[in-house]
Amino acid sequence: MQQLFNSIVSQSVKDNTYKFALTKFLLDYSHENQKVDVHQISYDEIAEKFLEYYWFQECKYKFKQDFKIERLPKVIGIIRRYCGENYIPESYEEYFKGKVDLKRTMIKEIKSHCLQDVIPRLQPKNIFSFYRHFHTLSPTRKKFRLPSKNKRYIEITEVAHQFFKENYYVLSKLLIYEWAKFLEKTNFTPMLIAKIEGLGLHERRSLTKYRNILLKQMDTRCFYCDSIVYNNDIHIDHFIPWSYIYDDVIWNLVISCSACNLKKSDYLAPSTCLVKIEKRNEMYSFNEYGKDIKEYYENCNKAGFLTIEDIKCS
Asked: Which residues contact 262 (CB under 8 A, 6 or more apart)?
């Protein structure tokens, strides 16, 4: 079982990341559910998890799934069609709160268009080591067809369920590592493993320490509009969006008024602001950490983060 798992996540040919997502589902399901005689898992349940996994990757982190810009993975196309292409500040739960019909529609499309090949192809041909499915081959024998509606579920084997449950943490680490290794070929993003592993659960830390450092060393003026910022209006902004950097580092933090901070949100500041922050970092020796903020900025832009143009660096 261990050898089969390793070969699937590490050695099998992958055109997209669906196999990683399905394997993550099996691990999470086994971890969260107790032993029962028969594990019948509906495609709705699998499709809902696919929506969650890929929603974070697309709407929060702007991951490029592969090099095929003109032909996106269907799950990403579905998410973009219903949620747009911009960064979404809300959490997954907040975004879909009150959008029951939208979520149900997206799950239905993912179930119809994203599961028909990955479910039968995850395991070696004619081997039901992890689960049993009811797909059949098309007449060309190159594609699989979805089973009839009353058969759209998998039956996870008891051995597989126990294996996933007992080895959950080790197997999850291996899966996330291989998933990140696949994505790093097409993405210019730091903290890739942490982003895939956390799926938005990474808690934001207090910026009080950095706030004190910045206020001690420089005037209390907004980095963007240069207005004086009074104590009750001081915000600390991530110059390059936190959802890209995924860390709090002094060379990327600036004093901001509340209006500019809320307006900028998780957009990139105009490129003209780069000169200002590079001079600031050099003046206060924030460059000693050896980070090229211009390179991070350009990579963040390549990753698909949008630039807000109505903020100017005075």
From this structure: none
